[in-house]
Amino acid sequence: MGVVKAVVFKHNADVKPLLEMFNGMVNECMEYALRQGVNSPMKLERALYTEFKQKHGLATHYCISACRVACSALKSWRRLVKKGRADESKPPEFKAFVMRLQKELMRFKGDRIVVTVKPRQWVEIPLIIGSYQARFFEAWRKGELKLGEITLLEDKAIATFKKEVQEVAPKGYASIDVNLMSLDILKTDGKSLRCEKIDLKKLYGIRVHYFKKRRRIQKLSKCKPKTSKRLMEKYSKREKRRIDDILHKITANIVRELVKEGISPVFEKLKGLNYNATRNRHAKRKNRKVSSLPYWKIQRFIEYKMAWHGYKTHYVNAKNTSKTCPRCGSLSQAGGRVYKCNKCGYLADRHFVACVNILKMWGLGFTPKALNEFIEREELRMSINDYVT
Ligand SMILES: [Zn+2]
Question: Fold for domain 172-316?
């Protein structure tokens, strides 16, 4: 199977004028498409090509690219309007200073990118290469990796590398349950079980820290709106960077272990969680935390890192994984850290129960005896006193 990895290269080249021009083109395309009711990039391109060529003089591919970006932005906006999540009277605006460079527009030289601006006119963008980037650069030079598209931003270029890998038949599976404070992993080769808990308190701490910070900045917004806005952006970016950094480290460790043991990960499908969580008025406080933790990121990071080694990541339906009793299959609520079955009295760590259920949905069942032995060995036995109602 073919796998793709995006690698970020920083640069100091002044590409702002080019990106600004492209941004203007996209916005022109969107306006025209809305006014004339055009949906297809091909039609848009035919309508605007001559005008754009005269006005901007850029290479043909910029026009094609702008039309595509405009159409896909309008398409997703229309979809949101249909769902009632966007205002129909407020069409979208392309604010980003970003551009995709198709193969026809650039030449990747490893330490720099040469971008065609107009026919026979180029811009050179020297790239800053650290040890991480050098690894990909070397592999690309040797022909082990192929280069895909490059996305150009003001201060960085994101290059995608492609590689053909042989899909690996896994020796076992690991269900990974992502929680507010921990990542719970249950590994199995079909017979024996092993569990692991990875602490996410540090992530939670960061989130709380920046939440308090943002609240302080918000107070500024009345007397100093500009400063407040600037600070808000600065700290939001910093928070995202810090969290992503930690997530990359955590997921890289997990993936290293899984690959070493030859195990494929299984997750719950998290469709729409972030969206729903922020809009549930009854549990706003609790869900603010839930929605703020980028669960999907943990899953995606692991998925693409596993794919790079030839392993597939699997997803199962998330319904009732934390409520179903592993022994008798009836539904009960967990209280605090403890899962207690109302029918058969089964007691266990609730994250462990979720992990067992995820594996079960993936088609790996365990006998109550095996589960009990495992619980005893790992000291996951819960006391009824820990149960919170
Ligand atoms: Zn039960």
Answer: Nucleotidyltransferase; domain 5 (3.30.420)
